Amino acid sequence: MNQHAPSREMFEARLRQIGDDRYHDKHPFHHLLHSGGCNEDQVRAWVINRYYYQSRIPMKDAAFLSRVEDHNLRRIWRSRIEDHDGTTAGTGGIERWLKLAEGVGLDPDYVASAKGVLPATRFAVDAYVRFVRDQPLLPAVASSLTELFAPKIHKDRIAGLLEHYEFANSDTISYFQHRLTEAPKDVAFGLGWVLDHAVSQADQDAAARALTFKTEVLWAQLDALYSAYVAPARIPPGAWHPTEGLL
Amino acid sequence: MNQHAPSREMFEARLRQIGDDRYHDKHPFHHLLHSGGCNEDQVRAWVINRYYYQSRIPMKDAAFLSRVEDHNLRRIWRSRIEDHDGTTAGTGGIERWLKLAEGVGLDPDYVASAKGVLPATRFAVDAYVRFVRDQPLLPAVASSLTELFAPKIHKDRIAGLLEHYEFANSDTISYFQHRLTEAPKDVAFGLGWVLDHAVSQADQDAAARALTFKTEVLWAQLDALYSAYVAPARIPPGAWHPTEGLL
Description:
The structure is a homodimer.
Chain A: H1 8-22, H2 28-34, H3 40-65, H4 71-85, H5 93-103, H6 108-113, H7 119-134, H8 137-142, H9 150-164, H10 174-197, H11 201-229
């Protein structure tokens, strides 16, 4: 019986395969969005719901920090929070997302209020924050590795939005431009950490499960969006209606 | 029946009275330390145990961040983590505390390992981290307001250490020098936030209880230290023994 865990290379390939199989770049909503097939309301619904995910990422990263005993690891991980929350008022990824919100004709205060966010979006995102707060550090870090697959989707998105939508310009889509440099820095560290720390078969399995879980968190948000806002649209009670929150 | 909460001024005076009555500057261990009455072993025991408190403060602040939905509040609060964890390797309050550890003849790796920390210190500090993670934001912020009383104890400590102990110099006690500017900045924000948000009598009571709880967390650590290392010393099983962790 082989007691050894598969090699570092095989383990990394296993993680990357999860992205090939399950990352949300394959979701029909993204095909619609990037190909210019979304109408104004659908773009707005995406901006509103995705805001909730963005807004919880620094809380997720702070929950991680709160469990890390090594101040050097905390200091490195902290840059993720800085990327999203900014270093001075008006900077950071969350503010850039609110610029996108304005660009698509939404009142940024409405979007920031997180009113109208789909319950299924909240459930998925909150499950992610809870996962990182409650699970051991290895799966908590592994769940961030969807960033391995993010640069491609961001490039596709930047190209698709610029080509197909009037609202898209360097100002409104600056969130994605920044992520092109932020995400690779984060994931280089996160992947190295996971490969270093997943020493047993059980560790590798736990890391793979965590990454799979995270792909589910992302996919579920798009399913909810599609169900609510793509024909035949079924907007759940209390969720954003296209007449609300406009500038 | 008066339904109004006491004025902002009366509430602030109530909070300050808690410090006058219960802050750990009144603990006999601090009198001993600041007056030159501690022997080398007692100073080392203090450095080892207080390190555990220092090391958990950024985790406590991250636990707070993880529950804050307002990215502007998160960004302001984040500076506390930066003060302790630093902005580059080798900077920050935790590294400065390890300089103090070296200065008193302790192996900084031993101190950073948190081996030998008194169980009662762990229990008190862990109770604080848990409090901030689990309580509503108002008591969580209020529990930080012992910093209102910190500048005086830091000044007394700097003067007392420099006067009475050979190890004390600007390098070894730089932790306290930095706190003289960091703590007032933090507490000015924290106090304003608590005064603004404690609008009802019940809110003010909860904030006062939280601050009282925090004074208990600090006091209990010194009681444990006194019991273990001041004559008649009763070092609990597993706790630091004066022959361990030396340079």
